[in-house]
């Protein structure tokens, strides 16, 4: 900077003096801001603004419940969206390519944590970053999905909450609903790793019991009705997992079940309101709360890789006698009495 007097000549002494004053002021302001930031970091100030990015492969009741649970848990822990927390949510609308784009954008934004709901979104985020803490949710087998090497602390930037279910209670429910069960249909997305693992496990568990598993692959949500129709006359019931394409198109599955008189049994309790006869599964809102607890621990300074993966310890039974009648069966009073909720 040069200082010019009224005669048009540069006065270097005044220029140097002004330059020194300005430099001192700017340096002092910068140092004060840095000191404040350092103080916040050192004290772990809970009022400091945090950013959490949330993505889901698609929007449907179970995954929506997870997101709601996460946000509610954050709020209860003192992280309130719009006050000391910024939440950015984006859905991939069932498109894995879009899930990859969202993951890359989130990584570029450098949030304090990324929550990825359902396996395809979690895989996309895990592929996009090895440094930003990532918390998955509603992933059935995170090891098989290659999200974590083990469940008791990954040692990486990834942890989360699984919705894995024990198969024995599911099979017991199927046989209580249809005591002479011989053939089970399974509609699923062959591109979703969770669904293919469940298919394999169902065959391993049911075949020794003399129960056949008939698979009906559906690559897209639009293919669900056709896949279900292919099971007509072949199966005693259709079992559905938390396959995201299937859950997204459950109303079309329900329509085929009513027309064909094939009862639907689900592992997603929200599917009972949408047409299933019964469901024994995880409460996805509660799963979201558990996911939120993990995010809170990370925002408070814990390393993601040191936090074990959460797995639910209890299951809820929902039933619908009305849907059972529509789909050609009658639920026993014993099954109804065990239900946490009866949907009319």
What does this structure look like?
The structure is a single chain. By secondary structure, the chain is of the alpha/beta class. The chain has three domains: 28 residues; 138 residues, Rossmann fold; 144 residues, Response regulator (Rossmann fold, 3-Layer(aba) Sandwich), CATH 3.40.50.2300. 44% of the residues lie in helices and 18% in strands. The strands form two sheets. The protein has a seven-stranded mixed sheet. A five-stranded parallel sheet has the order 2-1-3-4-5, sandwiched between helices. Strand 6, helix 6 and strand 7 form a beta-alpha-beta unit. Helix 2 crosses helix 11 and helix 3 crosses helix 4. It is elongated, with a radius of gyration of 27 Å. The protein starts with 11 loop residues before the first helix and ends with a strand. The N terminus is likely disordered.
In short:
By secondary structure, this protein is an alpha/beta fold. Helix content is 44%, strand content 18%.
């Amino acid at each position: 900077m040069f200082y010019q007097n009224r005669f048009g000549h540069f006065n270097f002494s005044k220029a140097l003096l002004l330059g020194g004053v300005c430099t001192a002021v700017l340096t002092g302001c910068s140092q004060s801001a840095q000191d404040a930031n350092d103080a916040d970091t050192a004290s772990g100030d809970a009022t400091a603004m945090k950013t959490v990015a949330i993505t889901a492969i698609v929007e449907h009741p179970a995954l929506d419940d997870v997101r709601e649970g996460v946000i509610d848990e954050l709020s209860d822990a003192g992280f309130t969206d719009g006050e000391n927390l910024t939440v950015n949510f984006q859905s991939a609308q069932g498109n894995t390519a879009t899930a990859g784009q969202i993951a890359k954008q989130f990584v570029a934004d450098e949030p304090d944590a990324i929550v990825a709901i359902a396996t395809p979104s979690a895989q996309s985020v895990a592929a996009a970053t090895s440094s930003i803490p990532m918390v998955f949710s509603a992933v059935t087998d995170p090891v098989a999905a290659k999200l974590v090497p083990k469940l008791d602390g990954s040692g990486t930037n990834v942890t989360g909450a699984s919705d894995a279910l024990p198969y024995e209670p599911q099979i017991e429910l199927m046989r209580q609903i249809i005591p002479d069960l011989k053939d089970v249909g399974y509609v699923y997305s062959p591109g979703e790793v969770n669904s293919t693992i469940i298919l394999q496990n169902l065959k391993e568990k049911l075949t020794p019991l003399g129960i056949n598993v008939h698979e009906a692959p559906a690559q897209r949500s639009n293919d669900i009705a056709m896949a279900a129709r292919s099971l007509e006359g072949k199966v005693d019931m259709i079992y559905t997992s938390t396959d995201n394409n299937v859950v997204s198109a459950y109303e079309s599955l329900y329509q085929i079940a009513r027309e064909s008189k094939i009862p639907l049994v689900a592992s997603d309790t929200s599917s009972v309101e949408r047409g299933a006869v019964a469901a024994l599964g995880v409460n996805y809102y509660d799963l979201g709360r558990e996911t939120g607890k993990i995010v809170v621990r990370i925002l408070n300074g814990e390393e993601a890789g040191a936090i074990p993966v959460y797995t639910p310890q209890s299951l809820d039974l929902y039933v619908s006698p009305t849907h059972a009648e529509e789909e050609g069966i009658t639920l026993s009073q014993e099954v109804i009495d065990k239900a946490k909720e009866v949907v009319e």
